[in-house]
Amino acid sequence: MREILIVVPGPGDEAAELTAAARSLGEVRVTAAVFGADEEAAADLAGLCERVVVFPAAPGGVFDGEWAAAALTPWIAAEQPFLVLLAHGNDALDLAPLLAARTDRPMLSDCLEIGLRDGRLVGVRPLHGGKVRARVAAVEAAGYLATVRPGAYPAAAAAAAAGQVVEGPAPTGFSPRREFVGAVAAEAGEVDITQAEVLVAVGRGIEEEENLDLIRSLAEALGAEVACTRPIVDKGWLEKSRQVGTSGRTVKPKVYLAIGVSGSFQHLGGLKGSPFLAAINQDPAAPIFAAADVGIVGDLFDLVPLLEEKIRERRG
Amino acid sequence: MDIYVCVRRVPDTSEVEIEIDRSGRALEEDDFSWDINEWDAYAVEAAVQLKERLGARVTALTVGDEDDEEVLRRALAMGCDQARLLSDDVFAGADSWVTARILAAAMAEPRPDLVLCGAVSADQGRGQVGGFLAGLLDLPLVALATDLQVEEGSARVRHEVSGGVEHLVDLRLPAVVTVQTGLNEPRYVSIRGIRKVAGVEIPVLGAADLGLDPAELQPRVVTEELFPPPQGGGAEILTGSGEEQVERLVELLHEHGGLV
Questions:
Q1: How far is the C-alpha of A17 from the C-alpha of A32, rounded, in Å?
Q2: Potential cystine with A88: which of A110, A129, A156, A299 (Cβ 3.0-4.6 Å)?
């Protein structure tokens, strides 16, 4: 039976989805590696997997790619799992390729599907911001590593059969070349978009900073708050506290109107609670239309003023 | 201090219709405009700012062919001291593993004090090269830097971790840092600026120059087929005149509680 190691931050969606991805490969034995989990967290994970290995937390008690790679590399060398799986995200970028290089394994990144063919790992992954997909195959190797996109697999249900919980060793001879100093407090910002019921989100399609007035004015007509994608914050046009996404805020509005937003998975990753999602974008192939409930393909500079006018008319 | 910055030329596909070519494994590139990968531009700017502050020597590297030289010119125009085009017929079909092997070989002499890479590329989105380099060079890694301060022998890096949070870490140099967008403001490069560096010689280094055995450059991951994302299940696209579409959208927004 194939052994699959999932590396997780603890129990939760990530662990359940990676377990589902692992089990989609057939008869497998799933081991979860976790850092610094308490008994309860370990027991929760043991409800999903055949085995849980609790490694000591990194100094500082936070995720640390260096520490994790140092702890996991000898473990993987000794146990030789067929596949190591991580959820694609910020922490995976800090650990997964490093671990793949250290353990000398082919790595598939950001997979929407994983599979086996002739005993080799294959996968489907998005390219060009989701506008194309690729079928990729790893060459024959003793073991593989892959990161799986969050949401690509439905979470596996916890089984009653409890897996075994064991302690993993601390990395031996670890001399930290990287040290955790502290977490950076997120700036509060002038508004809290996480509390808003209606959000008008603006993306790169707005082109110029001055054009943001169109969005502000539309949001005012709707009684909504303005949110945005990462490039708008990178350019310094709106404050970080308005950014929705995996590196920004997680929001749960009732209605989300995305204007000139391409719909990257990092952005959509910050949108929870299945809001009514409407999109206006020039590009009919923009991934936002795959996620949206309703869309208009067209020029936002024509459509937004018209939309504002119609809303104001309706309100009288 | 020796800083290497790894860059890549990528197509801008945000506004073009994507077509898969006859091989089924690549895209029709006729309508593409190409530029430096966005993340890499931030990495170059970070390297050049360190040079200006600390007097580092900055070397820009790319793996590619003669068309890719233009990103190295751009890196030079931004202020990199030198550039190397890593190019060889045996590099064709390089995956990110092979790319990292080639880049690592190009950093053999002088050894790096700091390696900067964009965190991901806009086209492939794998986010692997920086981490592979850290593994191959046995250096510590920090991914997704949003701030970078370097002092003698160490760096303080702010970086994005999962959960919408940022951490501050101290790195002992040498190290590999992958750069997130927004780290700085990449300087504007004018056509005149590019012209100024037109005469700078960019050495082309192949497998033999880098001491690489072609047998070691076998890709670990092969792209077998490209295909369009599945259609359907997506948005209802409104039709009719602009006015009709907008009126329908107002109705729908109202129905879902969007007019607060």
A1: 12
A2: A110
Instruction: Please name which of A200, A193, A192 lies closest in space to residue A276, comparing C-alpha atoms.
Output: A200
Q: Please report, as a single letter, which amino acid is at residue A244.
A: V
User: Cα separation of A237 and A154, whole Å?
Assistant: 37
Cα nearest neighbour of B166 on chain A:
A184
- State the DSSP string of A48-85: TSSEEEEEPPPTTSS--HHHHHHHHHHHHHHH--SEEE
The residues spanned by each domain of chain B are 2-216
- Structural class in CATH, domain A193-315: alpha beta
Report the candidate in B81, B36, B84, B52 with the shortest Cα–Cα distance to residue B202. B84
* CATH architecture under which domain B2-216 falls: 3-Layer(aba) Sandwich (3.40)
User: Which residues is A178 bridged to in the sheet?
Assistant: B171
On whether any CB of chain B is under 8 Å from the CB of A203, the answer is no
Chain A positions in Cβ-Cβ contact with residue B181 (cut-off 8 Å):
230-231, 234
Q: Which residues of chain A lie closer than 8 angstroms to B114, CB-CB?
A: none
In this prediction the ipTM stands at 0.94
Distance in Å, alpha carbon of B226 to nearest chain A alpha carbon: 4
Residue of A nearest to B239 (CA): A296
Give, in words, the CATH class of A2-167.
alpha beta
Q: What is the pLDDT along chain B (260 residues), one digit of tens a residue?
A: 999 999 999 999 877 888 999 999 999 998 899 999 999 999 999 999 999 999 999 999 999 999 999 999 999 999 999 999 999 999 999 999 999 999 999 999 999 999 999 999 999 999 999 999 999 999 999 999 999 999 989 999 999 999 888 999 999 999 999 999 999 999 999 999 999 999 999 999 999 999 999 999 999 999 999 999 887 678 999 999 999 999 999 999 999 998 87
